[in-house]
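Hi support team,

I submitted a single chain yesterday and got back a structure, but I'm not sure I'm reading the token output correctly. Could someone confirm the output below corresponds to the sequence I sent? I've pasted both exactly as they appear in my results page.

Thanks,
R.
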Amino acid sequence: MHHIVNANVYVDGVNLLGKVADCSLPNISFKQADHRALGMIGTTQFFSGIDAMEATLNWSSIYPDMMKIFANPRKVIKLTLYSSLEVLTAADGVSEEKKLKTEFHGTVKGFPLGSFKPGEVVSDISTKIAVHYLKQDLAGDAVIEIDVMNNIFKAAGEDILANYSGNIAAQG
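Hi R., thanks for writing in. Yes, this is the structure output for that exact sequence:
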């Protein structure tokens, strides 16, 4: 059994320890195109791209140093989430721990100022990020890499778009 208990977020190499209450990584959703032709008894679907990706950071408070970074919707923000994947067995308990590293780059979709109520901690300080680059490694092994702007899509190190990229490149 695998188990992840906690994580730590960095922005542009700066540790956000204690500043981020939680982080929701993008859900990778594959676009599908319908295909139907003569002689087929039905319709099927095939991969045709990747839907827009979004990450969310929920802040534990308002931090002026971070607000200065996240206030600019035209600046690409580079975030890294580190966590430790524990491998659990019935015989040994935690038998192994592996580093899970997720990098994602994108631009801020909005700028939260919080929700203020008397006698309560400021809440609803959430930043959504339009993600255009995502890379995840487990113990140094590539899991997935997506770079929307550069047509890169790798799964377990395999270049899924190798032929496609060659086919749409200018030929000399």
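A quick pointer for reading it: The chain is about 10% helix and 55% strand. Let us know if anything else looks off.

Best,
Support desk
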